[in-house]
From TrEMBL:
CDD domains the record matches: FN3
Superkingdom field: Bacteria
Segments forming domain Fibronectin type-III: 62-156, 295-391
UniProt keyword terms in alphabetical order: Hydrolase, Protease, Signal
InterPro entries reported in the protein's UniProt record: FN3_dom, FN3_sf, Galactose-bd-like_sf, GBD_T9SS_assoc, Ig-like_fold, P_dom, Secre_tail
Name of the featured protein: Fibronectin type-III domain-containing protein
GO MF, one annotated term: serine-type endopeptidase activity
GO biological process, one term: proteolysis
Protease among keywords: yes
């Protein structure tokens, strides 16, 4: 029970927030806890002299959940939930604006639920209380309330039964600007509760229209950007609807002469004036169906799939109104095709992606003239080829050797997923193809499918060997690359062999071109007193350092954690570092020659 007003002490019958039936059958002996919550501005205090008494339930329970609805300028319907089985109640209606206050004395007794309060004054503030009259020895309950309201009268078309006529603009007027504005924020419009199949409705009004055309063009506008529902006036069955913020939506589904109710609604929770355009629309004559499919032919088998793609081509209708567009239906279950939407023009061809091998597909082309669609159009079919074997470079061991600069075509549509699965700049994406590139010196490597692939690509680059690949980096979506294609530049790479895997996001496959570019770092100046070379990199056992003119004074090796793992002072032109027992990974080697120190990166396999 919530106590929202009054002065302590508070006495009376109070109900818990949850039903006490939870405790049915529980022994009442023991310790009980009574919680009090103050929700007003965080006030604190002490609750004294309280007690819980276990006793039979009152013989007359108070009603709950009082509510009310304004019906006219002078009437309001008041209702509540019975506390028990009672059928009669007493009410006290208080005119707050008129200076009234609650007295505990009914203004009307022995009333039914709901109760019609009459003789009210428009614009005044009211509240009411209600108690149960259980009759005889059971007496009456305590009062429930107050429920407060203002006697503001909603417009007459606030509910479907009060729908008032509306006249849409003549066809051809256009909906560049709204033709109707409803003052929802000031005319006391309420939420009727009527809900169509589009956006959640809030405040709404209803209009009647006897259809003069078989369609309506609807556009919502500021303020409010409302939605619309069209109902059959006799059955209040929904015919069509449009969401809020709709633009030039064509509504249909009725016949000329049919009586309709049009609901204009604001989005649930919004209190705003609303504006909209409503214009008559006549559907043009529907075109004839498309004629014989060109490719693939109806019933064709072994249809070639390239990069998971097949191109559909058909013949336009040879008679009837010229189509303005074509709607495509496609799928692998006859009679249950997916609506792919319009082609977007009068082209009689479309590319379909995500095509599998050894699968029979069904498709249907429905010509469109404005909002009118052809009917009875045939369904065609074709069966794709058996999957060809994976490409030769399906795994690292058979990687295609490439040079730089170069551009190499690839196709992952029949590839399998091979190689590492751990994140390497980006997670490998599924079916992949492999390339091998050998850098003859240290430098920067750029690997790219940017704007040059039919699908959402991923690139991963590794060093090491196919049996022990070491991540160098990866990319999913390259900066400035369209179609979610990829581009990656790795700087400061050492001379050696690198493996490149090209895959697709979320298992996507397709065709494309892989472009490589490599730029050498400034090579060692062999005439410099501090120049040196090192090899091999990656290294399995021994790393060799070789100076050009001066002895190597000091060599210090660190792991990726910055821990020193080796130090030697060769004082010679060459030095061999035994890395046989070191863990696989990347190491940094600081080489000092003639008081000058350089750091190199090596990979231990």
């Amino acid at each position: 029970t919530s106590i929202v007003d009054g002065t302590a002490p508070f006495t009376g019958q109070f109900r818990p927030e949850e039903p006490l039936s939870t405790f049915n059958g529980v022994d009442a002996d023991g310790t009980w806890t009574l919680n009090f919550c103050d929700s007003a501005n965080g006030d604190t205090g002490t609750f004294n002299s309280w007690a819980i008494t276990f006793a039979p339930a009152p013989s007359c329970l108070a009603p709950t959940a009082p509510t009310g609805t304004v019906l006219t300028a002078t009437t309001a319907e008041l209702s509540w939930t019975a506390g028990g089985t009672e059928t009669l109640w007493d009410v006290e209606v208080v005119d707050i604006t008129g200076g009234g206050s609650a007295t505990g004395t009914p203004t009307d007794s022995g009333v039914s639920n709901p109760y019609m309060a009459m003789g009210l004054t428009e614009g005044n503030d009211y509240e009411y209380y209600v108690r149960a009259d259980c009759g005889g020895a059971n007496g009456v309950s305590g009062w429930t309330g107050p429920f407060a309201w203002t006697q503001n009268v909603p417009p007459p078309n606030d509910f479907p039964a009060g729908a008032i006529p509306i006249t849409p603009s003549p066809e051809g007027t256009g909906c560049a600007s709204p033709t109707f504005t409803l003052p929802f924020s000031t005319d006391f419009t309420t939420d009727s509760g009527a809900q169509g199949g589009c956006s959640d409705s809030g405040l709404d009004q209803f209009f009647s229209w006897t259809a003069t055309t078989d369609g309506l063009t609807f556009s919502s506008a500021a303020p409010g950007n409302p939605g619309i529902v069209v109902w059959d006036a006799n059955t209040l069955t929904e015919i069509d609807c449009a969401n809020t913020f709709a633009t030039d939506v064509i509504l249909s589904g009725w016949t000329i002469g049919q009586d309709l109710v049009i609901q204009i609604y604001d989005f649930d929770g919004s209190v705003s004036d609303v504006a909209f355009c409503l214009e008559e629309y006549t559907f043009p004559t529907a075109p004839n169906c498309a004629e014989t499919p060109i490719s693939p032919a109806d019933g064709a088998v072994d249809v070639v799939v390239t990069g998971g793609l097949v191109t559909l081509t058909w013949t336009a209708p040879s008679s009837g109104p010229a189509p303005t567009d074509y709607v495509i239906f496609f799928g692998d279950t006859s009679g249950a095709l997916n609506d792919l939407g319009p082609v977007g023009g009068i082209d009689t061809t479309i590319d379909i992606t995500g095509i599998d091998f050894s699968t029979t597909y069904f498709w249907q082309v429905v010509p469109q003239n404005g909002a009118s669609l052809a009917t009875g159009c045939p369904e065609w079919s074709f069966t794709t080829e058996v999957a060809p074997p994976p490409p030769a470079n399906d795994d690292c061991a058979n990687a295609t050797v490439v040079s730089a600069p170069s551009t190499t075509a690839f196709d992952t549509s029949t590839a399998t997923a091979t190689g590492p699965t751990a994140n390497c700049g980006t997670l490998p994406g599924g079916p992949n193809v492999w390339f091998e590139y050998t850098a003859t010196g240290a430098g920067d490597l750029t690997v790219s499918t940017c704007d040059d692939a039919s699908f959402d690509t991923k690139i991963n680059v590794y060093s090491g060997t196919c049996g022990a690949l070491v991540c160098e980096g990866g990319n999913d979506d390259g900066t400035g690359c369209g179609g979610f294609t990829s581009e990656l530049t790795l700087t400061g790479l050492a001379a050696g062999t690198y493996y490149i895997a090209v895959s697709g996001f979320s298992g996507a496959t397709g065709t494309g071109n892989l472009t490589l570019d490599f730029s050498l770092s400034d090579g060692p100046d062999l005439d410099s007193p501090t120049s040196f070379t090192y090899y091999p990199n990656p290294v399995e056992n021994t790393l060799t350092l070789s100076a050009a003119l001066n002895n190597i004074d000091d060599v210090v090796m660190f792991n990726m954690l910055g821990q020193q793992v080796m130090r030697v002072q060769p004082n010679a032109l060459s030095s061999e570092l035994d890395m046989t027992n070191m863990q696989t990974g990347t190491y940094f080697v600081k080489v000092t020659i003639a008081d000058t120190t350089q750091t190199i990166r090596v990979v231990k396999q």
